[in-house]
Design a protein that fits this description.
heterodimer, A: 904 residues, alpha+beta, ten-stranded mixed sheet, six-stranded mixed β-barrel, globular, B: alpha+beta, three-stranded antiparallel sheet, 3 strands, 14% strand
Chain lengths: 904, 115
């Protein structure tokens, strides 16, 4: 310990307290002065005293020399000298420096950006206490449960869910977990003072924050007391970002009343800044207790319904407890749980299914996420892609550094020969390359920050994510840059130490055909680059073509000039029985608005992200069931979307609630159900409700929810004949009026009914495009990386060719002098480049072929392993490669032979 | 070196450090001239320290963290660089003193035997 202190003391002393010459000189001068004063005091005259002082104390100059020796040169100074020298050298070759720094920056920056996204979506645990103790409770057999829930109930969540009675019973009787909580997503509308915008709300059980281990940032968080049946004016907790964004971070917010869906809630606290809930990609704004579900304007009866599956349940295991033991206990309580909550109205043949359900716990440290499933594969592919880009950046850098160092081999050899220290040479090279690495890493941070912003911007519609810069990651990037630069930068120093100076000096420029020694490594590097860029270009082409194919898909209706008006009348507290009339009234007013050509109400907007399935069977045999998509529409929906009836009629006022059930089906539906070519007049059965439907119209196939899907069997039913109208609905509006103008026209029309009704108007085309975020992202990024890779390969080829030409300048001179034509020289050099390219292309094509199979799920409208796209990528790269190698070859061929012969 | 008077004692290798440390220990922080004057006085003029010996020695001690130098003013209000013992210096001094004592005992025993 003491030794350590002494050493640190010494090093700090060396770094900080090195005295300057002036300081030393002054000390010596004072010494002489003091000695002279002493002599004067003893009675000497000034002049004599000074002489005696000098005699007694020795020469100041000699002393200064001795002091300078003692002071020595610190390594800091030496490194500084190397840094200055390195900067000078790098400045002398600006193109090399720029290319090297940019290559590194792009490689590292792109990696960091993608990794951050991957980390945020897939890897990062929830920002709560001991996230690895969290588990998600779901059904052991999810497929069976989904099937059962479809038959007998409704599901209102993308995640594993329970009904409220199940949750209550589970909460009160489970022993498997230390603590459990439930939550559900919902949307609430802020009041007009906050712009009447929709906000993302969480309905949470009382123990939500407690079990997660989240401490309040302000005020207090929800507890069991807040979540009691019929909780009056509900309490609510705000997220930090909502509080900052909408309320300006007002510290007096505690105790304030906010109006959500025109109902008051009391704000009791704010969560800490990093806490976004338990769903990655959907950060919540406001959390209210589950008991507030109905009072916030939600559907009545969800708290008692045994067939409405809407709560996601999570639990925290006791420290050290394994999931296996939790699952054993869950299995044990399951039977009792499902027996106690068996819905009275349950179809008898499904009871057994219900009772045999068992609960199961799966790890929940990273929360739940719908985006995770959507983006898992693309992100992994992108990460691999950026990994390859980084590899290429490193090889490119290695190539550049090697080329540069080879050019200086002579300098090094001479320096060593005249007695230069080998260590010093190595140190100087290290410093020089470290500066390159540092420069690359610094610019790389900029690239990472910039591309993260673009990524989040691209994904913004789907995700609410923050991507803070991860400094550990930057450290890794920096380390990688350093290792690359140093490893390859030191090769020449190592080589110079082995080869005698005389050989190097002699060999340079005089070799017959350019020795193979140094160039082998560089050839391998270039082949690697070419192969990698074929792979990346291939990927880029795949996803670009996919995006183009998706854009070209015929959706089966005319989306131009169609807008979606979402009308939300939750604030009005309209009784469900009066909602249909209200919606009809609203539709009439929208139809009368100026500029509106046609309008209709729809249950599920195409590509809107929601949908409904039904199970139907032919009239003749009710046991042969088919799953179909269902949508509820008003008359004129088909006309509004520009869909022409192939046969039969549109819905009209005859098809009211009490009238016989009628439906319009598409071609695929008719084919699947074995109906006639013209099915109008035919009937089929919906076994779940026992309803019989009569087909009154036939329409062409159209897409229902996604561009990628195969033609779906779709049945349209009159909205009037559908149950359970919601407190909000969507209208499709056809109009050539610009969107902003149309929006205010519709708002005016709706405001005639009540100013409390909120309207959001958007273009149908935007909704369809939003579904392509993932595809656009893939096309954009993989395309960029492909081009980047091609560029890097071109630089690499150019560098190697220039180097080869340089080495063979003499030989070329001799050949030209002996009568070789320009074309002969070009052929000679091109053969060299062509061989490298060909080997690289072959390897790249093989790698592409191997990789193609794994991306099949992500591409659309093309066969990834088809030779066409691989050939396209190869051809693109071959072209780029030939151009890159033509330039140095032409330079060599144009060199006058005398110049070439004299060239050193 | 060549013209040094033979009467003056050469500073024995390694003893300068010990002398300087001891001087600073007894007299407290001192500037270079005061150290030289003190040694000269103690040795009754036999030990005249050259600046070229004294100051590199002080710098060496400073580099080893045994003394610490800082600019200050003398009693006569003159600027000078003062050297003070550090804690490490005090420890080093105690150690060296012990070593010196042991060595002199040995030497004395050896020399007396011979006599």
């Amino acid at each position: 310990m003491r030794l350590l202190r002494e050493w640190t003391h010494r090093i700090v002393g060396m770094l900080l307290q090195r005295r300057r010459d002036a300081d030393l000189e002054e000390e010596l001068r004072i010494h002489l002065d003091l000695a002279a004063e002493d002599a004067q005091r003893r009675g000497e005259l000034l002049h004599e005293a000074q002489r005696m002082a000098r005699l007694r104390s020795g020469s100041a100059l000699q002393a200064l020399d001795a002091l300078r020796d003692q002071r020595g040169i610190s390594w800091v100074e030496e490194v500084m000298r190397d840094v200055r020298h390195g900067l000078r050298t790098l400045r002398r070759t600006p193109s090399f420096t720029t290319v090297a720094v940019i290559t590194l920056a792009l490689g590292t920056g792109a990696n960091a950006a993608i990794y951050q996204l991957l980390d945020a979506i897939r890897l990062r645990p929830l920002p709560v206490d001991s996230p690895d103790q969290l588990a998600i409770v779901q059904m052991a057999d999810m497929t069976r449960w989904v099937d059962m829930a479809r038959w007998t109930g409704r599901r209102s969540s993308a995640y594993p869910v329970l009904t409220y009675p199940l949750w209550e019973h589970f909460r009160d009787h489970q022993t498997a977990f230390q603590g459990v909580f439930a939550w559900s997503n919902t949307e609430v509308r802020l009041d007009r003072s906050l712009g009447a915008r929709p906000a993302k709300a969480l309905l949470v059980s009382g123990d939500f924050f407690n079990v997660l281990g989240v401490a309040p940032y302000l005020g207090r968080l929800l507890t069991r007391d807040d979540d009691q049946p019929s909780c009056g004016v509900p309490t609510a907790v705000l997220s930090h970002s909502f509080w900052q964004r909408e309320l300006g971070g007002d510290p007096g917010v505690i105790g304030r009343t906010l109006t959500l869906n025109a109902r008051p809630v009391e704000v009791i606290g704010v969560t800490p800044a990093g806490f976004f809930g338990v769903e990655v990609g959907r950060a919540f704004d406001i959390a209210a207790p589950i008991c507030a579900q109905a009072s916030l304007g939600g559907e009545a009866g969800w708290l008692t319904s045994r067939t409405m599956w809407w709560l996601t349940v999570m639990g925290r295991t006791a420290p050290g407890q394994s999931l296996d033991s939790v699952n054993e206990r869950l299995k044990a309580v399951s039977l009792g749980l499902f027996q106690a909550s068996l819905p009275a109205e349950f179809p008898r043949d499904r009871v057994e299914d219900y009772l045999s359900l068992t609960l199961q716990a799966v790890p929940g440290a990273t929360g739940v996420s719908a985006v995770r499933t959507r983006y898992a594969d693309p992100l992994l592919i992108l990460q691999l892609t950026t990994g390859i880009v980084l590899l290429m950046a490193c090889t490119n850098l290695a190539n550049l550094v090697l080329a540069r160092a080879s050019a200086r081999e002579r300098e090094f050899a001479v320096r060593l020969a005249v007695g230069g220290s080998w260590l010093r040479l190595v140190r100087q090279l290290m410093v020089e390359n470290a500066m390159l690495a540092l420069g690359g890493a610094i610019v790389g941070v900029g690239v990472a920050a910039f591309s993260s912003r673009i990524l989040v911007g691209q994904l913004g519609r789907e995700l609410s994510l923050t991507l803070p810069l991860d400094w550990r990651l930057l450290g890794v990037m920096l380390g990688l840059a350093f290792v690359t630069c140093l490893t390859f930068g030191l090769v020449p120093a190592w080589r110079a130490s082995r080869v005698s100076a005389a050989d190097t000096v002699k060999a340079n420029g005089r070799g017959a055909s350019g020795g193979r020694d140094g160039t082998m490594l560089r050839r391998v590097l270039v082949v690697t680059q070419v192969a990698c860029s074929v792979l990346l270009l291939f990927g880029g082409v795949l996803f670009a073509v996919t995006l183009r194919n998706l854009h070209a898909v015929d959706v089966g209706f005319e989306s131009r000039n169609v807008s979606i008006a979402r009308v939300d009348f939750t604030s009005l507290s309209v009784h469900p029985s009066a909602r249909r009339a209200l919606a009809a009234d609203l539709l009439d007013r929208i139809r009368e608005a100026p500029g509106v050509e046609s309008a209709a109400e729809v249950r599920h907007v195409p590509f809107g992200g929601t949908g409904n399935s039904a199970i139907v069977a032919p009239e003749s045999d009710p046991t042969v069931t088919t799953g179909v998509r269902l949508n509820g529409v008003t008359p004129r929906y088909l006309a509004t979307l520009g869909v022409t009836l192939l046969a039969g009629r549109d819905f009209d006022s005859r098809d009211s609630a009490g009238a016989p059930k009628v439906t319009i089906v598409n071609r695929t539906f008719a084919r699947r159900l074995g109906l006639a070519e013209n099915p109008v007049g035919q009937r089929f059965l919906r076994p779940a409700s026992g309803d019989m439907f009569e087909v009154i119209g036939l329409v062409p196939d159209s897409k229902y929810g996604a561009l990628r899907e195969d033609p779906q069997p779709i049945m349209f039913v009159p909205l009037a004949q559908m149950t359970a109208p919601r407190p909000f609905t969507d209208f499709m509006v056809r109009s050539t009026v610009p969107l902003s103008r149309l929006s205010s026209l519709i708002e005016d029309a709706v405001a005639q009914v009540s100013p409390l009704i909120a309207v959001d108007v958007g273009a149908l085309e935007t909704t369809i495009r939003d579904g392509l975020v993932r595809e656009r992202l893939m096309a954009l990024l993989s395309g960029t990386f492909g081009v980047l890779a091609a560029l890097i390969a071109a630089i690499g080829l150019y560098g190697v060719m220039s180097y080869l030409v340089l080495r063979r300048t003499n030989e070329i001179g001799v050949r030209v002098a002996l009568g070789a034509r320009r074309a002969d020289v070009l052929t000679l050099l091109f053969r060299e480049a062509g061989a490298l390219l060909a080997v690289g292309l072959a390897i790249g094509a093989a790698m592409s072929l191997a990789a193609a199979g794994s991306v099949r799920a992500l591409v659309f409208g093309l066969e990834p392993q088809s030779p066409g796209i691989i050939s396209l990528a190869c051809a693109l790269l071959a072209l780029i490669g030939l151009v890159a190698s033509y330039l140095p070859a032409r330079r060599a061929a144009n060199l006058p032979p005398l110049v070439a012969l004299r060239e050193q | 070196m060549a013209n040094r008077e033979p009467s003056k004692a050469d500073v024995l290798q390694g003893t300068l450090d010990l002398m300087v440390l001891q001087t600073l220990d007894t007299m407290g922080p001192q500037h270079g001239y005061a150290i030289a004057a003190r040694l000269e006085q103690v040795s009754a003029g036999a030990l005249q320290l050259n600046m070229g010996t004294l100051y590199p020695g002080l710098m060496r001690l400073e580099q080893r963290g045994l003394v610490k130098g800082s600019w200050g003013t003398t009693e006569s209000n003159r600027k000078a660089r003062f050297y003070a013992l550090t804690a490490a210096g005090r420890r080093e001094l105690a150690k060296e003193k012990q070593a010196w004592d042991r060595m002199t005992t040995i030497m004395q025993a050896l020399l007396r035997d011979e006599a």
